[in-house]
Please model this.
Amino acid sequence: MKTGRRQELSANEMNMSVPSLNKTRIAIVTTCGEEWGGSEELWALSLPFLQARGCEVVVFKEKINRHHPRFAALARTGVGLQDLDTSSLGASARRMALKIWRRWRPGRSAQPLHTAFTKGIRRYRPQLVVVAQGINFDGLAYAHLCREEGVPYIVVCQKAVEFYWPPAGDRAYMRRALEEARRCFFVSQHNLTLTEEQFGLRLSNASIVFNPVRLAMKALPFPAVDKGFRLACIGRLFVIDKGQDLLLRILAMDKWRERPLSVSFVGKGVDEEGLRSMAALLGVNNIRFEGQLDDMSEVWGRCHALVLPSRSEGLPLVVLEAMSAGRAVIATVAGGTGEVVEDGVTGFLGEATLQSFEATLDRAWQERHRWEEMGRRAVAALARRVPSSPEEEFANAITDIL
Model:
């Protein structure tokens, strides 16, 4: 009995099922750096539709927490899970890494991840790879590898940022990866337009896709206001993108200290300690850090509106969820927010600067008597704009490509 090859297999390989040659095989590679993030929702919720059509799926990610409830649920449905962290790979895999990187070397810091991905798709032999990106180019090295291996792929772009452009040395292969994708999906027109500008091309293979909304499109009862108004600021505690520091500076102003208004920060992130320290320094007491919460219906059952001072976005899932729950949105125009929120009708929009967003928040406060009505308008507006099942539409698009 031959045992040498089996002994060289990593734990990843042994955990990934042998591909079924009589099934359509789809691989998903996600660049989300969190254990689970909003950028995972679209591909994850499309999987039941794909599996019902006879597709077999494996997910590649740098490091998968198999105890996370979402990944555990995927595993129970037969989805394969494979880490791209190659610390457990044997000597033969490391030799292959050197061979590949002498020939092609974009994204040097991610070399081991890309090597493990190449190894994985050679073994799994997918008919299509879904490159699920957190922004508009952080997964294009994987798309490039698919091109080199002759594997069809699609690209999903969850965000594009004005101040974060593709590195000069990587632009050529990234541009080609976008052009040669079967489809490029963007969650907002803003993201598509900015990506075209950053790469200097028009993408004839591009489409707009919405992320799934977890809440039913039905206005929840508006909370009582006799004890004041409460805003929910929902999102990763990461000020470069989400701008929570702007909100703290506003709340530290005398006029906001005097108003019966409080803010619940919902989410976790690397800047939580910094934001708590900043709030203490500024003496902002009308806030509460609530951590990660899963029951958004409960949040909207006690909060009167969403406040989102983001500096950069794709199309925030929290905006769609707030609108679907019948809550007005007080936000910046970052990303695609202005594509779904109508200023003065379903919410209030400003820029991500202290002066502009303070004026926006003040305008919202002066019209707080309209928040309930605006929330009802938001539900109706969202129902007209967003498909009832974006995840099924995404699955349909994938099926059409296969």
